[in-house]
Input
Amino acid sequence: MSKENMADQKAMNGQPSEAPEKILKENTSAESSILDFDDDDPLSATGVSRKSLVIFFLIDTSGSMKGTKMGELNTVMEELIPEIRRVGEADTEVKVAVLTFATNVKWMYSAPIPIEEFEWARLRADGVTSMGEAFRELSIRMSRNSFLNSPSLSFAPVIFLMTDGYPSDDYKEGLKTLKGNSWYKFGLKAALGIGNEANDDMLAEFTGSKDTVVHAYSGSQLAQMIKIIAVTSSQIGSKSMTLSDDTKHELTEAEVYAAKQKLLGEQIQELVKNQDDSAPVPFDTGW
Output
């Protein structure tokens, strides 16, 4: 039995494994394990020549986002798409899916669009904040039978949530549904709080870690934070990686993704700390 299959079998048998306090390194071997996720068995792995990565943007378009916030967000997303096109390896197909939530939840397009073909459709703000409903909709679409039906092997998705306030519906129930989704469990998750009313503790419930939550109080900060999170998470998510220690102990794919999420938090916090804040916008006039 190969090392990859042994790791899969160990994971499926529920055997305990060591905490992922290992060295994370890029795997450049052509024979190395490539991570795959099946709806019934999220830890299965097979080898193919081309991999797929879907980046999900969950964006609050409620009435409180009206004006400068939505204008800045539209502008930075238009600028971001060319940057994401440079993310990933030559054998990785990057796709984008955008889910907006206000009174109703809507997909920008009916399916994920390859990044080379993606065009940003400017958003408008109105209504209340149906975040719980957005979580349920994401869970439905994030499956092999819907948005993740790529014929090639897929990396776990990147899921990026942006909001400026507290949900108007039962987000906890929606998040409970989403947490039962295998792709959500192993995907890279990050969140951005926009303005004074966004609740970072609530956003940490979504990502699972405060290190993958950042906050923006002005238009310039919003642009910086979106680019940092989107580009960094895409770079990490689109690389085949492996974990090992000095004894060459093979870890499960679940542990690999736990380490990727940890690395994402560390890199986001380091990049945020190094941002230029020489001319900060006053807190009460940030928008």
